[in-house]
Known about the structure:
Elements: H1 13-26, E1 50-52, E2 58-61, H2 64-71, H3 76-80, H4 87-94, H5 100-114, H6 119-127
Antiparallel strand pairs: 1-2
Helix pairs in contact: 1-2, 4-5, 5-6
Amino acid sequence: MTFVGVVESAVTDSVVLETLREVVAERPDYVYSSPEYMPADEEDGRCFYVHKDESGSPVSAGCVIGVVLYRLGAPLEWMEQLEARPASSLAGRLFPQLSDRTMQKLNLVQSAQDNGDTWGTAYAKGTGETI
């Protein structure tokens, strides 16, 4: 799947992981929370890849993986259609050439964030590295 501004083959494992690192480094102490008018599912506490305004229009990327994919060129409207899917599901649709190891790291970071960890802690848990 190719979007305007995205050269699919140019997005390698290292590009994705570096973008993840940059996003987390900007807000390492941030604990994700959805807008109050977008309540998360209490059972799984999931985040939203896309935040909407009160009228339901997409306005920004939300969770850590949503921000990463948005920076890599994924449109908000596209990510919005895939809410509640694992991070690897979105990344794999965009960039099927990514390794299983990178996909696993994205899922682990997302899971740690969804469980209430700061983005920095989630990154450390998912990648084994610190910011």
